[in-house]
């Protein structure tokens, strides 16, 4: 049901963007209401809780683009955050914004969530959320960039600390047990690229 709701979200967002008469807009708006109701049923949430997402999410056509920073230091440790929403560990990242490149968005997200400056060095891959075990009711295209920490910039307090319970550096063979499922599949790809395999991952 979540997939059907997301398909309707995409169709209605595109329709509302290009509809040129009041009747079409009314019909697309009604279908969007149904999509929100289906999403609420699929996720066990109240419709009222999803209503604030109408403009930033349900009115956005095409898959949602997000980015993660695989920040790995010279010792081979990756920077992970413990998410406040589910308590699981993940690479820092989030939704990309209009006006920034995907790499710039990842650098911004790492800074906001950890207070650590980094620079992107390679594209690890582009992942379809349906195929890498990401737990989300909406289709995401997830860009993962290999990043190096900027050693000449000391860590600062994160600006979005409310999104993060904890942060730390972990070796590839000592990752936290409570990894977010979608990140469990993508982190090995980041270490593969860090070790010198320059091929970017993408779903076929």
What do you see in this structure?
37% of the residues lie in helices and 25% in strands. It is an alpha/beta fold. The longest helix has 22 residues, at 22-43. The protein folds into 2 domains: 2-58, no CATH class; 64-202, Nucleoside Triphosphate Pyrophosphohydrolase (Alpha-Beta Complex), CATH 3.90.79. It is elongated and about 60 Å long. The chain contains 6 helices and 8 strands. The strands form 2 sheets. A 5-stranded mixed beta sheet has the order 4-1-6-5-8, with helices on both faces. The model has no long low-confidence stretch (mean pLDDT 90). A hairpin with a 5-residue loop joins β2 and β3 (89-90).
Structure keywords:
204 residues, Nucleoside Triphosphate Pyrophosphohydrolase, five-stranded mixed beta sheet, 6 helices, 37% helix, elongated
How is this structure best summarized?
The chain is of the alpha/beta class and 204 residues long.
Strand order of the largest sheet: 4-1-6-5-8
The radius of gyration is 18 Å
* Termini gap: 24 Å
Name the assembly state: single chain
Instruction: Give the strand tally.
Output: 8
CATH architecture of the largest domain: Alpha-Beta Complex
Low-confidence stretches: none
| Total helical elements | 6
| Structural class assignment | alpha/beta
Kindly report the CATH topology of the largest domain. Nucleoside Triphosphate Pyrophosphohydrolase
Q: What's the arrangement of secondary structure elements?
A:
Layout (H helix, E strand, L loop, with lengths): L1 H17 L3 H22 L3 H4 L3 H5 L5 E8 L5 E7 L5 E2 L2 E3 L6 H13 L3 E11 L11 E10 L14 E8 L9 H14 L6 E2 L2
Parallel strand pairs: 1-6, 5-8
Antiparallel strand pairs: 1-4, 2-3, 2-7, 5-6
Helix pairs in contact: 1-2
């Amino acid at each position: 049901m979540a997939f059907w709701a997301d398909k309707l979200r995409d169709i209605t967002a595109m329709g509302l963007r290009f509809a040129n008469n009041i009747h079409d807009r009314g019909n697309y708006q009604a279908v969007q209401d149904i999509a929100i109701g289906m999403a609420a049923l699929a996720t066990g949430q109240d419709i009222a809780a999803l209503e604030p997402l109408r403009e930033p999410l349900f009115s956005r056509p095409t898959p949602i683009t997000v980015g993660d920073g695989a920040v790995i230091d010279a010792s081979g440790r990756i920077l992970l955050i413990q998410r406040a929403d589910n308590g699981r560990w993940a690479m820092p990242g989030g939704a990309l914004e209009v006006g920034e490149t995907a790499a710039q968005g990842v650098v911004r997200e790492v800074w906001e969530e950890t207070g650590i400056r980094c620079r992107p060095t390679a594209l690890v891959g582009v992942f379809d959320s349906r195929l890498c075990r990401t737990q989300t009711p909406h289709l995401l295209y997830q860009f993962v960039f290999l990043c190096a920490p900027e050693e000449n910039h000391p860590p600062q307090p994160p600006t979005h600390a409310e999104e993060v319970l904890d942060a730390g550096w972990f070796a590839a063979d000592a990752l936290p047990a409570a990894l977010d499922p979608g990140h469990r599949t993508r982190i090995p790809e980041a270490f593969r690229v860090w070790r010198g395999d320059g091929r970017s991952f993408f779903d076929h």
